[in-house]
UniProtKB/TrEMBL annotation:
Compositional bias of kind Basic residues: 29-39
Superkingdom: Bacteria
Endpoints of the signal sequence: none
Pfam family, one: DUF4169
Biased composition (Basic and acidic residues): 12-28, 40-66
InterPro entries (alphabetical): DUF4169
Annotated region described as Disordered, given as residue ranges: 1-66
Name under which the protein is recorded: DUF4169 domain-containing protein
Species in which this protein is naturally found: Sneathiella chinensis
Length: 66
């Protein structure tokens, strides 16, 4: 005779396996690695600094000339 198997445990394990497989597919499809996120943050901060440095300052307005 074969081994006795608890069907509830078997079903729960199957569901966990399916869930883990779906999570892996979602990470591949939608996720980005930490290094990609870091690179994007650095690039964004570099661009913000460049934009800030290239802004022209407005001359203060003289209220007596109005």
């Amino acid at each position: 005779m074969g081994d006795v198997v608890n069907l509830n445990k078997f079903r729960k394990q199957q569901e966990r396996d399916r869930s883990a497989k779906q999570a892996e597919e979602n990470r591949i499809r939608h996720g980005r690695t930490g290094s990609q996120k870091r690179k994007d943050r650095l690039e964004r901060s570099r661009l913000e600094k460049k934009i800030e440095q290239s802004k022209l300052e407005k001359a203060p307005t003289d209220p007596s000339k109005d």
